[in-house]
Automatic annotation (TrEMBL):
One of its GO terms (biological process) is DNA repair. It comes from Zostera marina. Residues 112-273 form the DNA helicase Pif1-like DEAD-box helicase domain. The keyword DNA damage applies. Keywords: ATP-binding, DNA damage, DNA recombination, DNA repair, Helicase, Hydrolase, Nucleotide-binding. It is an enzyme of class 5 (isomerase). PANTHER family: ATP-DEPENDENT DNA HELICASE. Its cofactor is Mg(2+). This is ATP-dependent DNA helicase. One of its GO terms (molecular function) is ATP binding. It catalyses: ATP + H2O = ADP + phosphate + H(+).
Length: 494
């Protein structure tokens, strides 16, 4: 209530020692004002978190808007019996917050596009914003800040894991055909704001669906997005969204829910990801804005690689280089070649098969025949030796199937389906292989790569689970497991 808010403003004025390590990347201690909901504290957090000017403006608008949701809950008649000092403090602070969040220009509801390329600091702004709001909420009696207070989502699973959120489709029930039930609606009772990342992946239909679902979830049918504050975050200058055939980027379509309703635009201009190589950062920035020069093209072509060497100076490429390929079949071929090279080097050096390496062979294969029944496939070896990952297509391209999964301790893998987004296990999640647990009593066989290199191998049905570790150290617990599964897919078998 208003008394509590006034009390927080007038009493929570001390400075606390913190590091902002997640924001600044350093363990430097600093003294910062408590998150008491004042404009002064917001500006102090900006200063000590070392945000750039565009990040600063985004943090100011978002944080002031969130705090004003509590001011808007006030019954001003309660001020009649309040101490005049408290009444004056809360009224003045409300005016300052409205000025900071630019309410008079945009209106009471915030519908913002936070725009900028990768590395400009969008995630950093959201992290600091959530940190402030959580601390501020802790001071409010009988109020608990939960993941439903500010619902954090992303249009892709892997982006959601970076924000410690969930997919927009799941959170907002975008794929739900049934009518939303009271239990669905109750979860949104205390929600004050929604963040939707990777918004460039959304089509006009997605925006319409988001609006319709939020109106129902907040039980405000005739309000835009259910009268919730909305932050769309992303980059419309990246590749256009993939998905179903005919899906277009929203800027090609008539979409008032986005084009007409957005009342706040903030462009982040920082280049934090390139602080150790600003020349490369500015070059990529010119590519993004369509201002690439011939000098930029010539610079990139100086690093042309052929047969593992840089053409211009003959230097070898690093062993841990990451490859970007246009086709999945090229990625599959490169990974296989690197795996074989590693096994060959270990075998040549030690005379023994690698003890940290294993191949997992897809088994229990069945083929659908003419009468649409499944029969056992009798030539597994033909499948293993002649088919790669790109030759196996699950229905609607959901997930991937590798006939022979080639692993070693410490190798990098990627999840291909949304397993549990809230725990960081999403399509596109990168992880490191820690171990492969086999079922009780299973002893790996030895197979020969290229008829010369011995490697341990097991069938998929003999594997209990894979133990993996997230590359993103923000996700805790860092280790998780993946069990074998049955898949239906179309395969190109010679």
């Amino acid at each position: 209530n208003i008394r509590s808010m006034a009390r927080i403003l007038l009493t929570k004025k001390s400075r606390r020692t913190r590091t902002f390590q997640e924001i600044t990347g350093t363990n430097e201690h600093t003294e910062v004002l408590e998150a008491n909901g004042s404009v002064l504290s917001i500006l102090d957090w900006v200063k000590h978190a070392k945000l750039d000017s565009s990040q600063r403006r985004a943090f100011e608008v978002f944080t002031a808007t969130f705090i004003l949701t509590f001011h808007n809950d006030f019954d001003m008649s309660d001020t009649l019996n309040m101490d005049p000092t408290q009444t004056e403090a809360i009224k003045k602070e409300g005016e300052k917050l409205r000025l900071l969040s630019d309410v008079d220009s945009r209106g009471k509801q915030l519908i913002c596009l936070l725009h900028g390329p990768g590395g400009s600091g969008k995630t950093t702004v959201v992290d600091l914003f959530i940190m402030y709001c959580r601390e501020f909420s802790d001071y409010i009696p009988n109020f608990i800040f939960t993941p439903r207070t500010i619902v954090i989502t992303a249009m892709s699973g892997v982006a959601a894991t970076l924000l410690m959120g969930e997919t927009t489709h799941k959170a907002l029930h975008l794929n739900t055909k049934r009518n939303l039930n009271p239990e669905d609606i109750e979860l949104w009772t205390e929600t004050r704001m929604v963040i939707i990342d990777e918004i460039s992946f959304a089509s006009a239909d997605d925006f319409k669906n988001m609006n319709n679902k939020l109106c129902v979830l907040k039980q405000k049918i005739y309000h835009r997005y259910g009268d919730l504050h909305i932050i769309f975050s992303g980059d419309f200058r990246q590749l256009e969204p993939c998905g179903r055939e005919g899906k277009k980027a929203v800027y090609y379509e008539n979409c008032p829910q986005f084009k007409n309703w957005t009342n706040c635009f903030i462009e982040l201009t920082g280049m934090h990801r390139f602080k150790l190589d600003m020349y490369w950062g500015f070059l990529l920035k010119r590519f993004r804005s369509g201002e690439v020069t011939q000098d930029d093209i010539d610079f990139i072509n100086k690093r042309l690689v052929r047969n593992g060497k840089v053409v211009t100076d003959g230097t070898y490429i690093p062993e841990d280089l990451k490859y970007a390929t246009y086709f999945n079949r090229d990625r599959d071929a490169i990974n296989t070649a690197l795996f074989e090279k590693r096994c060959q080097e270990i075998y040549s050096l030690t005379g023994h098969q690698p003890n940290d390496t294993i191949m997992i062979l897809a088994d229990e294969l069945e083929v659908k025949n003419g009468d649409k029944t499944y029969r056992p496939f009798r030539n597994n070896q033909l499948f293993w030796e002649n088919c790669g990952e790109d030759d196996c297509k699950p229905p609607r391209n959901r997930g991937r199937v590798d006939p022979v999964l080639k692993l070693f301790k410490g190798c990098l893998v990627m999840l291909t389906v949304n397993k549990c987004v809230l725990q960081g296990e999403a399509n596109g999640t990168q992880a490191e292989v820690i171990k492969v647990r086999l079922k009780h009593g299973v002893i790996p066989k030895t197979v020969l790569l290229n008829e010369t290199i011995p490697v341990a191998a097991v069938k998929a049905s003999e594997v209990e689970e894979l133990v993996l570790k997230h590359l993103n150290d923000r996700i805790q617990p860092s280790e998780f497991t993946v069990k074998t599964s049955k898949y239906t897919f179309n395969a190109k078998i010679p």
